[in-house]
Amino acid sequence: MSKLDNEIVGKIQSYHKDFSNNEIAKELGINRKTVAKYRNIIDNTKEETAGVLSGKEEQMWLKQKIEGLSKEDKKKLELLQHYSPKDIKEMLWYIAQTNKKEIEKVIWEPWHLKFGLIADTHIWARECDLDWIKKFYEDAKNEWVEAIVHAGDLVDWCWVYKGQKFEQTEVWYEDQLNKVIKEYPNIWVPTYFIWGNHDLSYLSWMWADICRSIDLLREDLIYLGAYEAKLKLNWITIELQHWGWWTSYSQDYKLLKYLDKIKSWDEPDIYWLGHYHQAIHSLHRGIHWYMPASFLKENLLAKRFGFPNVIGGWIIDIEKTKDWKKRVVSTFIDE
């Protein structure tokens, strides 16, 4: 085969067998029949080389690998052998979406909380304004905040919309993870964050929950789960969500409809909705609700839909009396 053929075969090989010829052809920009042809070549090559590690050699190789595992890990390995890769992917998906943390604690002063509200930092995106993220965290530190709450899309991933893969600064998993671990600001207060649609896309393609990896490697970055979470800090309740669809003509219409459905006994003090890259604050049913801005400069998607990204974050100072009256001071910090 020519060098070009080898390149195409290499790209096709990187796709899992569950992907259809149509899906691969669409991603690579080639004909579906071409994909089918090269897939046959790959399958035939696998059959020819299947006997390279067979019989005793394969058994010895597996034995060496398994002997180094603990008894518990051996049991897990035995169980996994009964599942297909597709089943394993679905299990990862389920675990990521159902495993949520419930945070309820008093940090400093009960009934009073000063904290930062942000979302959509999109680390790895070429248009991510990392310098401004660091500036916001520095301002938050000077304001003596007790926590930062992040409503999703901490990171960017390249299969959410067409052409996005050309807007990434890091490609390999290790580089992407290191970028967050080493460069995301740390002001020695916790940053609580949830999944967004970009974080979800990462799991769909890489079979890895990048948010969980970040949580393990950075003590100050605390992952709460997928799409939504509820925090109770200093007896102030914060509900945060990250939606995945476009707003209506009136940007707050769907949001207000959602707040109307919340039971009176389950109402949060602060409701925080990520995804829309707009900066809005209002009051509805006694709930102070916010649409955070973002830290993403104008990218291909914003240009195509004429939907400009607002850059910045909020500092919220809330005090609540024991008869549930609230005093809220909201400060938006922009570029």
Could you give a short description of this structure?
The protein is 39% helix and 20% strand. The chain is of the alpha/beta class and 335 residues long.
Rg (CA only) = 24 Å
Quote the CATH topology of the largest domain.
Purple Acid Phosphatase, chain A, domain 2
CATH architecture of the largest domain: 4-Layer Sandwich
Helix content: 25-40%
- The ordered H/E elements are HHHHHHEEHEHEHHEEEHEEEHEE
Secondary-structure content class: alpha/beta
Taking the alpha carbons of the first and last residues, their distance comes to 54 Å
Write out the strand line-up for the largest beta sheet, numbering strands in chain order. Answer: 1-6-7-8-10-9
Question: What is the name of the CATH superfamily of the largest domain?
Answer: Metallo-dependent phosphatases
Q: Label the overall shape.
A: globular
The main sheet comes to:
6 strands, mixed
Explain what the structure shows:
The protein has 335 residues and is α/β, with parallel strands linked by helices. The chain has two domains: 3-83, no CATH class; 96-334, 4-Layer Sandwich (Purple Acid Phosphatase, chain A, domain 2). Helix content is 39%, strand content 20%. The protein is built from twelve helices and twelve strands. The protein has helices at 3-13, 21-28, 32-49, 55-67, 71-80, 85-98, 130-142, 173-183, 197-206, 210-217, 253-261, 300-305, and strands at residues 103-105, 112-118, 147-150, 191-193, 221-223, 228-233, 236-242, 270-274, 280-284, 287-291, 312-320, 326-334. The strands form two sheets. The chain has a six-stranded mixed β-sheet with strand order 1-6-7-8-10-9, with helices on one face. Strands 5-4-3-2-11-12 form a six-stranded mixed β-sheet. α1 crosses α3 and α2 packs across α3 (32-49). The termini are far apart.
